[in-house]
Every structure is written in structure tokens, then in C-alpha cells.
Amino acid sequence: MLIGLSWPWLAVLMALGLALDLRLGEARRWHPLVGFGRLAQRIEAALNRAPGLRLRGVLAWALAVLPPVLLAAWLIAQTPWWLAALLHAGLLYFCIGLRSLREHTLPIAQALGAGELAQARRLTAWIVSRDTRSASEQELAKAGVESLLENGNDAVFGTLFWFLLAGGPGALLFRLSNTLDAMWGYRNARFLYFGWAAARIDDALNWCPARLTALSYAVLGQRRQALACWKEQAPAWSSPNAGPVMAAGAGALGLALGGAAVYDGEVEQRPPLGCGVAPQGADIVRAWRLVAMSAALWMAVVAAVALPWLLGGALHA
Predict the structure, then answer these.
(1) Are the CB atoms for 282 and 109 separated by under 8 Å?
(2) What is the span of the domain harbouring residue 150?
(3) Percentage of residues in the chain having pLDDT higher than 90
(4) pTM for the full model?
(5) How far apart are CA 259 and CA 279, in angstroms?
(6) Is residue 1 assigned to a domain?
(7) Which chain positions lie within coiled-coil regions (predicted)?
(8) Number of independent structural domains in the chain
(9) Angle subtended by helix axes 281-316 and 98-113, to nearest 10
(10) Residue 59: is its pLDDT beyond 50?
């Protein structure tokens, strides 16, 4: 088979990949996604020119994503099962970012708790595209919580979903597509047409995992409120996948998110998310716990489904 192993064994390898991420964190040097980003920049520089920008964008996406994904699938198909297992787990480790979410966001909460507003602004600027130079404590806390909730899907649950469907190549497909959306998916003069394919493909790959993420947040938080915010607020959000994730997450935490944010020196009024109180620094920690508990929930559900298969196979061996 293309992915090299049966689904129950992929569930075992999902636990291994998560464990590697939590133990080791992101590779500090020679991270594959860093190299991919540089490759994507070169492809965009060569192809992002008129005419036919949408077609060029499709070609650029294919040139950036398909070769590494197909190579990974081919290597797995050609190797013994034990090496295929290592490749699956290794690809998941490089694609997932659960520990990095904690490492990038909890220091913001710590800085806010210590009253170090300047430090909190610098740390927040590393993870969001909005202007944080004059942001207040509440604005920084809001940015941190929103980033955690949205990236819980983009960096964690979407990757896990596609890993369970197609192993390491599936996780790689999702992560590279999501990276291109983050690089090219802007609605500005430079990327409106060229980045159209990257944005739409990411929307398609993210549709199911985003809703499972939103459901996970609701189950583990204030459930009724989360589901109501999802239903009422998500349609107003510009992204079809970020809307459900962030609305449900905000409702689950009992926080009021969305609203005004500064981008490129201009104030943008975004639709409201959630309901309740404005976030404080400690709410970043609460948001991290929600993401971590959701990962544990996914692992528990997958284990509950996979273990009977594995035990049944062992008993009949």
C-alpha cells in the first residue's frame, strides 16, 4: 500500500510523532520547513508575474508541494515496514508544532504577568502579523489567544487529521499547503490572483479538521456557549475555517475576541468572536491548555478505535 502501514499502526505512530514533538520540539537547525520556505520564495519570484497569474499560481503550488510529497510516498512504499514506520513518525514530527505553540505563546503570558509590556510586544510580534508596537495588555493577550486557537488547527490538528488519512505524506501535504497559504494567501495586489490556488487548496484540506478542532474545543470548554458562537459568529469571519475554530474556542473559554486590530498602520474592525470578558495574560495559558487537552482527546479517541484492532490481530496471530 502507498502509505506502507495499516491504519491502526498509523495511530501508534501518531502517538510516537507527538511524543517526539513534545520531547524534542522544533529542529533548531536545518528545519525542512525553513528550506521549503526559501524554495517557495524562489518559485514565487520566478512565476508571480503577469499574465495568467491564477494559472501560474496553480503551477507554483504544484512545483513546491508535489515533488516532496510524492518523494516521501515513494520512499515509504519502497522500504521495509520498520523503516516505513520510522519515516512516517519522522515526517509527523517535522510537520507538527504542538510544543512550538507553547514555546512561542507562554512567554507572552509570563511577560504580561511580570508587567514587562515591551517584552510582551516583541514576543507577540513574532507570532502575529498585526502591529503590536503600541498594543495594550488586553490587545496582546487577545492576539496570543487568537493565535493559539487558530494555530491549534493549522499546526496540530490538521496535521494529525491528514496523518491518520495518509500517513507521513498526508501530514506533509497538509503542512506544506498550509505554509504556502501563510506565504501566498493574502488578498493584496501582490497575491490576490497568484495566491488564489494556495488559499483555496488550503481551505479544502482544512475544512474537515477545522470543524473537528472546533468541536474538540467545545467539548472541553463551555460547550453550549462554544457551539452557539460557532453557529452565530463563524459565518461572518473572512476565513471559512478559522471562523469556526476561533469562534468555538473563544466561546469555550468564555472570552470576547475579534474586534479591532492594527494591520500595516490601519485599524481593521473584525467580526466579534466568543462572548464574555476581555482576555488577560493568564488566558493565554488557558488557551494553551485547551489546545493541549484537545490533542489528548484526539489521542484518546484514536487509541480507543485502534487498540481493539491491534489486540484482535495479536490474538489471532
Answers:
(1) yes
(2) 7-316
(3) 79
(4) 0.93
(5) 12
(6) no
(7) none
(8) 1
(9) 160
(10) yes
